[in-house]
Amino acid sequence: MLDIEMVKQFYAAYSSKISTVRGTLKRPLTYAEKILFTHLYDEASLKPLKRGVDYADFRPNRVAMQDATAQMALLQFMNAGREHVAVPASVHCDHLIRADEGAKDDLGVACKENKEVYDFLRSASNKYGIGFWGPGAGIIHQVVLENYAFPGGMMIGTDSHTPNAGGLGMAAIGVGGADAVDVLTGQPWELRMPRIIGVHLHGELQGWAAPKDVILTILGLLTTKGGTNAIMEYFGEGTKSLSTTGKATICNMGAELGATCSLFPYDDNADEYLCQTGREQVATMARQHAVDLRADADVEFHPEMYYDQVIDLDLSKIEPHLNGPFTPDAATPISQMREKGPANGYPMNVEVALIGSCTNSSYQDLSRAASVARQALALHLKVKAQLIVCPGSEQIRCTAERDGILDDFRAIGAVVMANACGPCIGQWKRHTDDNTRKNAIVTSFNRNFRRRADGNPNTYAFIGSPEMTVALALAGKLDFNPATDCLVNEEGKEVMLKEPQGFVFPPQGFTCGNKGDAISTLEQEGLFVPPTEQHTDMNVVISPDSQRLQRLEPFAAWDGNDLQDMPLLIKVKGKCTTDHISMAGPWLRFRGHLQNISDNLLMGAVNAFNGESNKVKDQIDGQYKAVSAAAKDYKAHNMGSIIVAEDNYGEGSSREHAAMEPRFLNVKVVLAKSFARIHETNLKKQGMLALTFANKDDYDKVQEDDRISVAGLKAFAPGKPLTVTLTHKDGTSDSFEALHTYNQIQIEWFKAGSALNNLLRS
């Protein structure tokens, strides 16, 4: 069992720590509070902390990194001067594999195209004592759930869907690479004490409703901003009716709420999952602490007294949803799509249906979806949309292959892709006849931002459960409701699909082949390289001519002056996610090369002055050009610049490239109506100013040719506003207050030029 000594040490101290916390706070505890307070970096600092206000330093148990973000995280770690990571850590190669022809061919292409990056990640992992999961081993969050997650623990991961592990009762939080470096070097990891939203579940899901529909429903209630700086803590009898992987699906998409993480209590389902995945020893230890791996009884009896907000959900009343297009909180019960679709101009024909991603690629997911495929074959139904399946891990793939599940999909024409993120992260070589035609796809993924899956702005992506995705592939229509509607088969007969059925666990147990346990088999096949302390003297080679990898140079420290007369780089209109700021897809190949990837800066953002993307006015020559080109021109003239944006700027992925790129191109400030949590932290870590309008209407005062100044930096202090002055082209000006959330340590990051600079000089 991986990390077993660390897990033993954790549980050996857990009960006594809980007693200390309870004695200090003198009140019942939520489950989230138990995990947070038992992971304080300095136990002597234990005291009541005000949620949403106070910052605290934490000591997570481990770090997980996926290949696209691990590159920048490890490049920063290499500059930190450590010989070995301070906590257990793992790297997972799942993002760089493009979905095209099928698993075997695509994996071969990926290993060839990405050899330089994979070699770098493998050698850096070996040198610094990090577990390495090679291409084909599986998607980071499924692999973590199967091998590393444990109830009561705390993990950070360089991917926004790290909260997936909350399905097994772990506080798993998505962060940028600089945060990971803090933990990997043994430094305190800082987080503002989150609010806690209690979600009371009762009843059981019925019919076609799946765990995915729980979180799709909540997204419709709270929106993509509703969970910002909050932990979603689920409780109540209804939690016991959900499998661990079903709970992981719900926690995974808590990231779409902006939530810090999501948590389910430890129960018999979690116990069985640990045992089924070969971790009986962890299950035994967790069982001994079961009473403290959930909220205290008084919290569940009187939730309104202990949670900042309480949401009550009757699982029996939840119906299947399709969320979208373009945002995961556009929630539509399938029964309403027939009316809503045409009214909103949605293309109603489903062209592609995709199953998989870190959100829905477990054995239970594939099993239930395959039951729909088996029905289709028996009822003589043909799929009317292309069907693509991506298993979550090699263990899931191998088990599903043995049990005939993948053949069930193939029998109705599905293509099985590699155990990787693929289309979910934009790594999809879609074959289509016309990119200009409005078209609809349905996925079991977690995000559906415009252009995300296939790069096509005319693709309307909708999110549903895996079983609903198969049903809509058979119908070829967005408005098909399998609970009430018939389909016409090849013989012209009307037939109906029955409710999906599936196994939570494989009846014959999980397998990775016939070479022993899963870990040993993966080792033998070269898909897993365990951590070691024997290779600290090896070199991590990066070619100076590489176009994929580039050693990092420290950013310049603050010069001690206010920021004067900066040109406006772009005033962003509407939603601006990290996909808009730093696109994925083909740009993933440059995730280890800051200079090259900076060419995609804000290319998806909409310019408020012309309604176009990647076309802004360069104030030096008056020409309209790409955002990165204008930023480069300002940088060449030794000028800083500023980005102005609307609400929830930086929603989406944890990719810190969205902060490092503007920093590299000499952008000094992002001034927004509000920020997504991870992105705001990433900006702070890289030494940038993340400011918000005190009055959101001041956004409207910003003009295209403005020169913008920020004053008050010499007295920069927590809670003290700064002053922004807009000097307009006609000589007039506007001044207003800008707020910030910097504490004293974060101000030191700004002054040093970055958090890493501050660490190195301390």
TrEMBL record:
Q: Name one GO biological process term.
A: tricarboxylic acid cycle
Q: Which residues form the Aconitase/3-isopropylmalate dehydratase large subunit alpha/beta/alpha domain?
A: 34-476
Task: Report the Pfam families cross-referenced here.
Answer: Aconitase, Aconitase_C
- Signal peptide (UniProt feature, chain positions): none
Similarity-based family: Belongs to the aconitase/IPM isomerase family.
Q: Which residues form the Aconitase A/isopropylmalate dehydratase small subunit swivel domain?
A: 566-695
List the catalysed reactions: citrate = D-threo-isocitrate
InterPro entries xref list: Acnase/IPM_dHydase_lsu_aba_1/3, Acoase/IPM_deHydtase_lsu_aba, Aconitase/3IPM_dehydase_swvl, Aconitase/IPM_isomerase, Aconitase_4Fe-4S_BS, Aconitase_4Fe-4S_dom, Aconitase_dom2, Aconitase_mito-like
Please give the SUPFAM superfamilies that the UniProt record associates with this protein: Aconitase iron-sulfur domain, LeuD/IlvD-like
Assigned keywords, A-Z: Iron, Iron-sulfur, Lyase, Metal-binding, Transit peptide, Tricarboxylic acid cycle
The name of this protein is: Aconitate hydratase A
Its cellular-component GO annotations read: cytosol
Pathway named in the protein's UniProt entry: Carbohydrate metabolism; tricarboxylic acid cycle; isocitrate from oxaloacetate: step 2/2
Does the record bear RNA-binding in its keywords? no
Q: Which cofactor does it need?
A: [4Fe-4S] cluster
Report the EC number(s), separated by commas if there are several: 4.2.1.3
